[in-house]
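Thread: "does anyone have the structure for this chain?"

Original post by V.I.:
We have the sequence but no experimental structure in hand. Need at least a predicted one for the grant figures.
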Amino acid sequence: MGFRRQVVERWPANWPVQPFREPAWARQDPTYRECSPALIDAAVKRADARPAGNWFVVAASREIREDQPCGVRAGGRELVAWRGADGELTIGPGACPHLGAPLDQARVHCGELVCRWHGLRVGPRRPGWSPLPSCDDGVLVWVRLDDVGGEKPTEQPVVPTRPHGLTVDAVTTLTGTCEPVDIIANRLDPWHGAWFHPYSFTRLRVLAAPGGNDVADTDDKFVVEVTFRIAGKLGVPVIAEFTCPEPRTVLMTIVDGEGAGSVVETHATPLGEGPDGRPRTAVIEATIATSDRPGFSKAARIAPVLRPIMRRGAARLWRDDLAYAERRYALRAGHA
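Reply from O.Q.:
Generated one for you, tokens below.
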């Protein structure tokens, strides 16, 4: 018996990290037979039919500060966001009502913005400038754009179900030349994981997928068994569910295995057209990790150190996935 086999056989089954065996990349079991384009399109259409109340994710909560304004975009609108002295969030048009100066270059003074061009004060109680409905859910910041969404507005956005108790969160933002539907379609194709991201995923198997067009909400989910690669032939096996609580959000929830209850929220926010006349979409992804292991409380204490690592991991995945989404858009638009 070889040394590695002895180690594998004696490895504690209750440890979160497990050794695994995998075939060479090209010898994996093909997944194209199960990955039906019609099935993915039907799942995207069901998601698109759900109400969003005209809410759009625009930034991570910690990006919006009291000491300086933050420029954000959604639906082709230039916006500015900042916080008052009490931490209250304000979001509104990003152009000064006087001569159109960019308000993300203004200065915050006494909870208001002071335009750098001519000193005009802008704020919720100043005439000529009206704030938009906004929401800070503690991880992400949302804005309501009724003229962009075109739905019946709601008082609050559809915030996905998140873990309770001690958590560590990180938010990653990237931009692609595509539309939100292309981002959602990418996330609703779990079959590409081990092929397209072999550096992160292995031993991926789709356990359940919603079939047909008439699917109950409780059954409208993809269930995936996958091992997150840690190093070499060591990984963390989990079972995860993918659901769409609203048209521009895909929620991945770990339902079994290490970190059960942890979620990854992928939000697709349309930004408007780029200089080439093609649409731009922001992927704003929030990873919210939790664990009942005693060591997680120690990890939570160094969250500022962990967040850049979490962001880098998400960004690496999304650099590939944006290529997928952009290719899908190019084919749909006839640019390929």
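V.I.: this helps a lot. The first helix runs from residue 3 to 10.
O.Q.: and The chain has a mean pLDDT of 93.
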